[in-house]
Recover the amino acids of this structure.
């Protein structure tokens, strides 16, 4: 009963264990909630220490996808998959085509994409067995690299935060500390630089910073210096858990707005610490939803201009989340969860209405 209890606790609809001896595939697909539409979420390939650890990861991540899609206004549910194995040594065509067969067996209840440990090429193998895969390369008619849309969403989200904190959304002259100089940070810096912001940047790999400096001017700082800078905005775009008991007391910025996933180490405690310090935190899964918006767009025939337009909506979404947070004096990650749950409840209500000849009746 233990697994059913966990599913019930987190509200999962379906968890599928996939095993195939010939290919060596061991995978778990978790469908959290399909109230809004098919469950979409990437496939992570990791050398998990145990099946329990893999199960825990896929349950947690798939639930997160439900909230992310709901708050971004997408008609998608939350899902995720994990493949147990070493992504450096155990990847091959057969593994991913076998996985594609299992995805196909769900007949569209779950749509997959790349994630940590998998890439566009792996998804091309998956696509040989199922059409329920997104985030494939531009050459094959897919959406390709999502980071330009993610970065644009982070940029407009940052402007929404500026408006809420300072009554004006201009970033001109604002001092902004950017952690990481990878895909998301690079595009983001270009937007910020064009608007006249003063940028401080860091990365653990010097060549990444140099690449950013080819198109913009910025002050380069050491990785450990980034938290303490006397800046207006801190933008994490590298790794998770960077907002924690140790870093939050150091931060002088009044806004935290960046694309990295899982920024709060201890969600409730660290979210509350930021509220107490009057630091406006843009919930990561909201401000970086451009990546999901981008792959969702591919399902309707990809057009980057449409994806960008949709990502622009992050400005209004974040403004509403901040408003609710201020009115109710609750951390922004709590107000965004509330807004997502409200949408799920409301749309779930509409689905109950019987309409002849409509697909929604069979949900
Ligand atoms: P990336 O790998 O291109 O860039 C990350 C950069 O962070 C790398 O250059 C790396 O060297 C640097 N880095 C690692 N540790 C660091 C440290 N301690 N200090 C400073 N820099 C450090 O990844 P990306 O695609 O730019 O994604 C960045 C973050 O945004 C990740 O958390 C990712 O999950 C998240 N995200 C990305 C997208 C997207 O569209 N790419 C979408 C949603 C969320």
């Amino acid at each position: 009963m233990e697994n059913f209890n966990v599913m019930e606790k987190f509200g999962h609809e379906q968890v599928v264990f996939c095993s195939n001896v010939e290919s060596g595939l061991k995978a778990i697909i978790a469908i959290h909630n399909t109230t809004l539409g098919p469950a979409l979420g990437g496939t992570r390939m990791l050398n998990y220490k145990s099946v329990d650890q893999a199960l825990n990861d896929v349950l947690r991540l798939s639930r997160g996808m439900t909230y992310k899609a709901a708050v971004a206004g997408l008609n998608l549910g939350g899902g995720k998959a994990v493949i147990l194995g070493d992504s450096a040594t155990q990847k091959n065509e057969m593994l991913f085509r076998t996985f594609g067969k299992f995805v196909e067996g769900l007949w569209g209840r779950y749509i997959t994409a790349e994630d940590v440990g998998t890439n566009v090429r792996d998804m091309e193998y998956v696509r040989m067995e199922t059409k329920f895969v997104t985030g494939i390369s531009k050459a094959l008619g897919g959406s390709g690299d999502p980071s330009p849309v993610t970065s644009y969403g982070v940029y407009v989200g940052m402007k929404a935060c500026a408006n809420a904190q300072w009554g004006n959304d201009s970033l001109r002259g604002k001092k902004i500390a950017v952690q990481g100089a990878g895909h998301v940070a690079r595009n983001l810096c270009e937007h910020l630089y064009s608007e006249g912001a003063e940028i401080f940047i860091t990365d653990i790999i010097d060549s990444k910073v140099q690449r950013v400096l080819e198109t913009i001017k910025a002050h380069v700082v050491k990785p450990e210096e980034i938290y303490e800078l006397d800046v207006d905005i801190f933008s994490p775009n590298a790794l998770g858990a960077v907002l924690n008991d140790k870093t939050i007391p150091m931060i002088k910025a009044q806004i935290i707005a960046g694309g990295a996933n899982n920024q709060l180490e201890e969600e409730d405690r660290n979210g509350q610490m930021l509220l107490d310090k009057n630091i406006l935190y843009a919930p990561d899964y909201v401000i970086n939803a451009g990546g999901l918006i981008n792959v969702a767009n591919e399902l309707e025939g990809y057009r980057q201009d449409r994806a960008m337009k949709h990502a622009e909506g992050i400005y209004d979404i974040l403004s509403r989340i901040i408003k609710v947070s201020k009115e109710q004096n609750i951390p922004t990650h709590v107000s965004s969860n509330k807004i997502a749950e409200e949408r799920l409840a409301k749309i779930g209500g509409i689905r109950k209405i019987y309409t002849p000849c409509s697909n929604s009746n069979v949900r």
Observations:
- The longest helix spans residues 51-71.
- The chain is about 45% helix and 15% strand.
